[in-house]
Amino acid sequence: MDKLLPYFAKYPLDFIAHLSSLLPIITGLIRYRFLTVSARFIWLFFIWFFLKETYTLVLALSATNNLYVQNIEPIFETIFCGFIYYYCLPTPLERKTVSIGTVLCTIFLVFSYKSDAVSAISLSTFRIFAIVLVLAYFNRLLTDMRVVSITRHTLFWFSSGLLLYSAGTFFIVLFSEYWYQGINKVPAAVFDQYWNSNQILFIAFSVLSAIGLWLSKYDQRLT
Q1: Shortest CA distance to 177 belongs to which of 189, 191, 192, 159?
Q2: What number of other Cβ atoms are within 10 A of residue 185's Cβ?
Q3: Would 223 be classed as within a structural domain?
Q4: Which residue range is the domain that position 146 belongs to?
Q5: H-helix or E-strand containing 5?
Q6: What percentage of the chain has pLDDT greater than the value 70?
Q7: Which residues touch 141 (CB under 8 Å, ≥6 apart)?
Q8: How many domains does the chain have?
Q9: Do residues 85 and 36 make contact, with C-beta atoms less than 8 angstroms apart?
Q10: Is residue 197 part of a domain?
Q11: What's the predicted TM-score (pTM) here?
C-alpha cells in the first residue's frame, strides 16, 4: 500500500481506467440472468482485463518487467472478440467466417509475440481485427433491421465502445515501439499524452459496455 497510494496519486487517470473495467463486471453480475451468450463473453472479457491489469500493476510496483503481459493482451482480446461475435451472428456462413478469422489472427499474434519489447504488430493486428468485426456486425444489424430499438441492444453499445477504442488507439499503438524507447529518447510529457489518450478511450469503452450490459434485460437479438 505504501507503493500503491503514491502511484495512484501520481497517475490518477491510470487508477480510474483500472477501476472503470469494474463497471461492466458489476453491471454484468447484476444482470447476469438476462445475459445472452455473447453478453456473457463481454462480461468475461472485462473480468480478464481487470485481472490482467491488476497483475501488471503488481509487476510494475515490484519493478519487474511486465511487457510480456502487454503482448499477451491482444491474443486474449482477439479470442474473446471472436467468441462474442460468433454467438451474436445468426447464419452458419457468418459464424464460419468469424471462426476462421479468429483462428488465423490468433495464430499470427502467437508467432509475432515478443517477451522483451512491445509489439506494435500484435497491438495493431488486434485493432484491425476488431474494427472489421464491428463494421461487419453493424452492416448485418442495419441491413437485417430485426432489432426494433437499437439503443436497447447490448451488442450495439459494446460494438460502439470497441470501435471507438480500437480506431482511436490504432495509430497510437502503431508507433508504440517508438513511445516505449525510454525517457532518454521520448520525453515523459510526450509519452503521457499517448498513454492518457489510450486510458481515456478505454474508460469510454468500459462505460459504453456497462450501459449495454445494463440494458440486457431489454435485449433484442439478431435471429
Answers
A1: 191
A2: 10
A3: no
A4: 4-218
A5: helix 4-10
A6: 86
A7: 147, 150, 153, 155, 156, 222
A8: 1
A9: no
A10: yes
A11: 0.89
